[in-house]
From TrEMBL:
The keyword Repeat applies. Residues 34-84 are annotated as: Disordered. The keyword Repeat applies. Keywords: Kelch repeat, Repeat. This is F-box/kelch-repeat protein SKIP11. It comes from the Eukaryota. GO terms for cellular component: nucleus. Residues 68-80 have a biased composition (Basic and acidic residues).
Length: 428
């Protein structure tokens, strides 16, 4: 993972027969001289180079995500006067796109700076849609350790990146927030003065926007995504009533569709996709707000919910603790037992949880709060770190379950004055 590679053509993805033609065109030697730079180094890590970073330049660095302004097209080189509709004229548009599909999305900002055709291709989202049939998916971790600041971490290049700051009102800042990554969007849910609100970050434009509304606005729900769709279930409405309703969001069309309701209302629950079915796990429900040990399975084909007993890994009497920390890798369900610092795996056949190893020793939390446990492609990711006198570090550790019992690999570490408030993984 940490081996050096060219900035434009990563070794992670398979090459095709037309790859040599793309390489010979030497796009990575084209210097970006106008508009915003796609990646600017952060002085916090004393990286002063003003060039586009190669992989070896950025293993311990932080960069700021940006895309070129549309107005920059008025100041392009004479290259824009060529047949830019073919993208790379030497090999044609179709072969150009085939090559770009296999480039790392870390480089899409630089590619968008070449000319208006490249920029339109990147911003349209077409490349991400075309990547899916080829099985080309990169998983980035998005997390917030400050109320209005979000960062991204690329586990492949071990690179930290700053997102633009959010600009909500003060009420949103201090409300409970949930986050979800779906398609090419990061959604952050919270409350303003009189209503729930959703802020949406698009990796296509590197901007935040608001105004999106669910059919039944809620908070404290369980959610999970599968490609361009996501399902949100349960939670509380603006009056504090616990909900059993669920909705499906399609990021391609920007639409919300109401689904059949669950068997039980629940809040503070977790959710995952497994075997192409949606599962809601644990939570608090009922008139007495008791912990729920059951889960529910939603079949997208039949539109039916099925209750599954004893699916929650949270122990009885654990009121006040975080929702279950669960994640799915290769259709296997795992949980982080933050009390005993153990990793557990769900036996789908016998419907029981088995302890299989330990969490990273420095994965500190407060009753589970401040610790992120997520699936990231074929890996499990744990993000957290020790706190001491208002200072500390955030660490990103990974483990590949297919390689054997938990052996955690430290991918990145940085100073942080707070723990992880929200975390989501985007695969596109």
């Amino acid at each position: 993972m940490l081996e050096d590679r060219s900035c434009l053509v990563p070794r992670d993805f398979p090459r095709e027969s037309n790859w040599a033609a793309c390489m010979n065109y030497s796009l990575d030697r084209i210097e970006v001289q106008r508009g915003k730079r796609p990646l600017e180094n952060n002085p916090e890590n004393e990286v002063s180079q003003r060039k586009l970073p190669k992989r070896s330049d950025s293993l311990n660095g932080e960069v700021a995500l940006s895309l070129p302004d549309d107005h920059a097209g008025n100041h392009r080189h004479a290259a824009d006067n060529s047949d830019s509709s073919s993208l790379i004229p030497a090999i044609g548009r179709d072969n150009s796109i085939s090559c770009l599909i296999h480039c790392s999305r870390s480089d899409y900002g630089a590619i968008a700076s070449l000319n208006t055709s490249f920029r339109s291709l990147i911003r349209s989202g077409e490349l991400y849609r075309l990547r899916r049939p080829y099985g080309v998916v990169e998983h980035w971790v998005y997390f917030s350790c400050q109320l209005l600041e979000w960062e991204a971490f690329d586990p492949s290049r071990c690179r930290w990146m700053h997102l633009p700051s959010m600009n909500p009102n003060e009420c949103f800042v201090f409300s409970d927030k949930e986050s979800l990554a779906v398609g090419t969007e990061l959604l952050v849910f919270g409350k303003e003065i009189l209503s729930h609100v959703i802020y949406r970050y698009s990796i296509l434009t590197n901007t935040w926007s608001s105004g999106m509304q669910m059919n039944a606005p809620r908070c404290l729900f369980g959610s999970a995504s599968l490609g361009e769709i996501a399902i949100l279930a349960g939670g509380c409405d603006s009056q504090g009533n616990i909900l059993s309703s669920a909705e499906l969001y399609n990021s391609e069309s920007g639409t919300w569709n109401t689904l059949p309701s669950m068997n039980k209302p629940r809040k503070m629950c977790s959710a995952v996709f497994m075997d192409r079915k949606f599962y809601v796990i644990g939570g608090i429900g009922g008139t007495e707000s008791k912990l729920l040990t059951c889960g529910e399975e939603y079949n997208l084909e039949t539109g039916e919910w099925t209750e599954i007993p004893n699916m929650s890994p949270v122990r009885a009497g654990a009121a006040g603790e975080a929702p279950p920390l669960v994640a799915v890798v290769n259709n296997d369900l795992y949980a982080a037992d933050y009390a005993d610092m153990e990793v557990r795996k769900y036996d789908k056949q016998n419907k029981v949880w088995d302890t299989i190893g330990r969490l990273p020793e420095r994965a500190a939390s407060m009753n589970g709060w401040g610790l992120a446990f997520r699936a990231c492609g074929d890996k499990l990711i744990v993000i957290g770190g020790p706190r001491a006198m208002g200072e500390g570090h955030i660490e990103v550790n990974s483990w590949v379950p297919s390689e054997g019992p938990p052996q955690w690999n430290l991918l990145g570490r940085k100073r942080s004055g707070s723990f992880v408030y929200n975390c989501a993984v985007m695969g596109c």
